[in-house]
């Protein structure tokens, strides 16, 4: 059965981006990008390739989208858009679309967006890229099925939180825990 999955990297102290919304902390961690190779050990990137085979639609917030636009210079180099799946960007502002990408800009209740993504995903999973507050909106509506985090050996002290919601252990079931190079991969099923 298809799931709605939050799959992201996070620091040990629970941040997905630094106070400037940058992911440079991740990219400088061995195994955090193809360029930051870890001595041949398995990394979260290896697992991501397999994960992406099961993804039929993706969703992100405007801050995440704008960061990707800027970091990859996508308006000048649209071929660097890494998602062949239909993508939804939740925003209350007008944002430029990546030429040739299947992007839908939406606002309002995430339940309606989730229904459209489920249809477009054609039986495959929905990947919630982030940010954390957007994922929290899906959680609040009972639409989040799984949380997968790649825990990096980094402490930022401040930044964008992983998931700014109070979710206690009775709502989560650990389904996977394993080392992955310098990272630890943890996966939890969300109990509805």
List the helices and strands and how they pair.
Blueprint: E1 4-11, E2 15-17, H1 24-27, H2 44-53, E3 55-61, H3 62-72, E4 87-90, E5 103-106, H4 110-121, E6 125-130, H5 132-140, E7 146-152, E8 160-161, E9 172-180, E10 183-190
Parallel strand pairs: 1-6, 1-7, 3-4, 3-6, 4-5
Antiparallel strand pairs: 2-8, 7-10, 9-10
Kindly describe this structure.
By secondary structure, the protein is α/β, with parallel strands linked by helices. The protein has a single domain (about 35-185), classed as 3-Layer(aba) Sandwich (Dihydrofolate Reductase, subunit A). It is about 25% helix and about 30% strand. The protein contains five helices and ten strands. The strands form two sheets. The chain has an eight-stranded mixed beta sheet, sandwiched between helices. It has a two-stranded antiparallel ribbon with strand order 2-8. The model has no long low-confidence stretch (mean pLDDT about 95). Pfam families: RibD_C (PF01872). One of its GO terms (molecular function) is 5-amino-6-(5-phosphoribosylamino)uracil reductase activity. This is Dihydrofolate reductase. InterPro entries: DHFR-like_dom_sf (IPR024072), RibDG_C (IPR002734), Riboflavin_Biosynth_HTPR (IPR050765).
């Amino acid at each position: 059965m298809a799931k709605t999955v939050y799959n992201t990297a996070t620091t040990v102290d629970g941040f997905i981006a630094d106070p400037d919304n940058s992911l440079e902390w991740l990219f400088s961690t061995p195994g955090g990008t193809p360029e930051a190779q870890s001595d041949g050990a398995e990394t979260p990137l290896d697992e991501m390739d397999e994960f992406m085979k099961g993804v039929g639609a993706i969703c992100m917030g405007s801050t995440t989208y704008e960061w990707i636009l800027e970091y990859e210079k996508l308006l000048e180099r649209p071929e660097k858009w890494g998602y062949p799946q239909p993508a939804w960007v939740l925003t209350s502002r007008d944002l430029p679309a990546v030429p040739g990408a299947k992007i839908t800009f939406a606002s309002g209740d995430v339940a309606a967006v989730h229904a459209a993504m489920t249809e477009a995903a054609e039986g495959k999973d929905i990947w919630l890229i982030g940010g954390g507050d957007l994922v929290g909106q899906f959680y609040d509506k009972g639409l989040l099925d799984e949380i997968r985090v790649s825990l990096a050996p980094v402490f930022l002290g401040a930044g964008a939180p992983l998931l700014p919601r109070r979710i206690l252990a009775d709502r989560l079931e650990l389904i996977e825990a394993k080392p992955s190079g310098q990272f630890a991969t943890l996966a939890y099923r969300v109990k509805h």
